[in-house]
Amino acid sequence: MLASEAPKTNAAMETQSAANGGKKRRKRNRKICICVTLLILLLIFITLLVLGLTLFKPKRPITTVDSISVERLQASIDTLNLKVILNLTLHVDLTLKNPNRVGFSFGSSSALLNYGGKLIGEAPFPASQIGPEKTLPMNVTLTLMADRLLTDTKLVSDVMSGSIPVNTFVKVSGKVSVLNIFEIKVESSSSCDIVISVSNRNVTSQDCKSSTKL
Hints:
The protein is an alpha+beta fold. 29% of the residues lie in helices and 50% in strands. The chain has two helices and ten strands; from the N terminus they run αβββββββαβββ.
């Protein structure tokens, strides 16, 4: 009786051992598969990162004011009340250049007209997109809000001298998307100090500076 049971016990042990060995192999194969998958994903991430930092490295979009012209200028002095009655409209041509190999999108913004550090005019422009390595031309009309200068005594002396110094400022905020994975926020602006001749009704001096932040 005992002798006949021994072969069965040995066979059962061998079957169990084989089963355990199969489980260990499957577990080992599963670990190898996971490691290979993680390694592939890591290589893909490194490749995309290298491309993002080299070939698709974000560059700074540039806002440039190409020209500013006077569309309308009417100025008269109320000597009794020592104030100026002024109507002014400026036409501004500007361009936004995207030097990147990917598109640049920006939100709605405004062009500003300033006198003596005071906001006297504003013109909105809509959100838009610029294709890779493209330039977007824009035209803005800035009209003076006359009520902003009713109590400004300095304007009286400027009009009497024949020259009115003003400033135009344009800022665009947007983002550059690299490989649809990385999004880089970008801010580009241009500020122009101009002098307007009262008698000739034109721009006699223009000094513009551009800046960009990544």
